[in-house]
Design a protein that fits this description.
Layout (H helix, E strand, L loop, with lengths): L1 H10 L1 H15 L5 H32 L6 H13 L11 H132 L27 H32 L6 H34 L9 H11 L6 H13 L16 H15 L5 E2 L14 E3 L10 E6 L2 E3 L2 E4 L1 E5 L15 H13 L15
Parallel strand pairs: 2-6
Antiparallel strand pairs: 1-4, 3-6, 4-5
């Protein structure tokens, strides 16, 4: 009996019953009817099991008390209770099995309660996290709305700023265009100032030359006025001092003075072409051609071709002038003087543009020079134009100025050329020419410049770069250039 009581006490059956009743009370309102009935049936079964154990313990206790042991207690307490209508279910299982089942049920209920409490805690935690996430989501949504509002505002402002910036860009472009026009105008003015300065220098030289000529003339007049009159001798034979003096040297005529002035101007301009224009053209060509020797060859050949074309144009114009003046000439001077005077007065009739085209056409078929395919020799047009003008006007002088024939590999002439700084001064042959010499009546007036190197004759010629424009110019050169129909006179040589 005591063992049965001990098992009942250790199984905490009544505590389990109390817990179940409390749980049923808490969840009764939210459970369904079947769930609540199942829970009540479970409580009744558990109560009947406990009652069975109690009845077993009571019978054992009564048997230990003898025949009349505990009869009064049963009569006074158990019988009235049974008479009230309570019927306890008989135990279908053993007491040990019933207590084990009760204990397992209690343990399961405890685990279920623990799991339920843990589930409730997790649920509360998740609800807390969900509320926090919802709060963060609301904050993020507010920030997104603020960002969208700022973006729209910025978009509107940037649209206005873009319109303003486009207007500013248009104004700046207009200002830039005006500034470029003004810069080009200033550049032209500077070029004119440079031309004016060069003209002033030339005029100063001409003035000094005229002053020297005036002094020479004044000295001649002074000597003529200061010479003593001839005295007569009584003897019929003339004395030495009575013999007529030799005629004084004739004073230069206006044509001779004009020719000398033009001569000095053209010589100075030729020096300017060498010292200024040639260097500027070299700097411009070095942007497209890396070989410095090729740059110098291009400029030299352009100069020689310009002299040749200008001479041919001058001869053609002289023939036309002679043909024009021949029927109407009746002056005191000769026809050649009239033709020369007509040419000098009409030097502006020279068609320099056609000469520039002829020079470029001749350079396109020259095998000694090459040029990049993306560029043309028309880049040298300003320089060729100036050289053609100078060469044409030099042909109108008396005697005319000319340049000598120059070939690569010729013997170096100290009277015609001076060696360049990068030459081999012990080499006797000319590798290539830098600038032609200037001749007057077969005598060297201004030395040219050349480069001397050993093995100059073995230097290979450069081939032309392929260009459709230059190839077409080669085909049309035979019909457009007058070079092939030259007369065999010594002045018609190709330079």
């Amino acid at each position: 009996m005591s063992e049965t009581i001990r098992r009942l006490a250790s199984s905490s059956t009544y505590a389990a019953l109390q817990d179940k009743i409390s749980a049923l009370k808490d969840s009764y309102a939210i459970n369904s009817c079947d769930t609540n009935l199942g829970r009540l049936c479970e409580l009744i079964e558990l109560t009947s099991k406990i009652q069975s154990q109690l009845f077993t313990a009571m019978s054992l206790t009564a048997s230990e008390g003898g025949t009349y042991g505990g009869v009064d207690t049963l009569k006074s307490r158990l019988l009235p209770w049974l008479g009230a209508g309570f019927i306890a279910s008989g135990g279908s299982v053993t007491s040990d099995t019933s207590l084990a089942l009760i204990q397992e049920s209690v343990e399961k209920d405890r685990k279920i309660s623990e799991l339920k409490s843990k589930h409730n805690d997790d649920l509360i935690k998740l609800e807390t996290e969900l509320s926090a996430a919802q709060g963060e989501l609301n904050v993020t949504r507010d920030e997104l709305n603020d960002s969208q509002a700022e973006l729209e505002k910025t978009k509107v402002e940037s649209g206005g700023t873009m319109l303003a910036s486009e207007e500013e860009i248009i104004l700046l472009r207009a200002d830039l265009r005006l500034a470029r026009d003004e810069a080009s105008r200033y550049k032209l003015q500077l070029d004119r100032v440079g031309d004016y300065e060069r003209q002033i220098d030339r005029l100063k030289g001409e003035i000094s030359l005229l002053r020297q000529e005036r002094e020479i003339l004044e000295s001649r007049l002074r000597r003529r006025s200061c010479s003593p009159p001839p005295r007569r001798c009584r003897s019929p034979v003339l004395c030495d001092y009575e013999r007529p003096l030799p005629p004084p040297p004739s004073s230069p005529t206006h044509a001779e003075l004009t020719n000398s002035i033009r001569h000095s101007r053209l010589v100075a301009r030729f020096n300017d072409l060498y010292a200024v224009d040639r260097l500027d053209m070299q700097d411009r060509l070095r942007r497209f051609v890396d070989d410095d020797e090729m740059v110098k060859r291009i400029i030299f050949i352009a100069t020689c071709e310009a002299f040749h074309v200008a001479k041919m144009s001058f001869r053609a114009f002289r023939l036309r002038a002679r043909k024009l003046l021949l029927p109407i000439h009746s002056g005191p001077g000769s026809l050649e003087e009239a033709v020369t005077d007509y040419i000098v007065r009409n030097l502006d009739l020279y068609d320099v543009d056609r000469s520039v085209e002829d020079v470029i056409r001749a350079m396109n078929v020259n095998p000694k020079i090459s040029f990049p395919p993306e560029c043309e020799f028309a880049l040298l047009s300003p320089f060729i134009r100036e050289v053609c003008k100078v060469a044409y006007r030099m042909q109108a002088l008396e005697p005319p100025l000319d340049i000598p024939l120059a070939t690569d590999g010729e013997l170096m002439s100290e009277t015609k050329y001076r060696r360049s700084y990068d030459s081999e001064f012990s080499a006797p042959l000319v590798a290539y020419h830098v600038w032609p010499a200037l001749l007057e009546d077969c005598s060297v007036l201004i030395k040219g410049e050349c480069v001397t190197r050993r093995g100059a004759l073995s230097s290979p010629r450069r081939s032309r770069s392929p260009s459709p424009i230059r190839s077409s110019s080669r085909l049309s050169r035979s019909s457009l250039s007058p070079r092939r129909s030259r007369s065999p006179s010594p002045r018609s040589r190709r330079y």
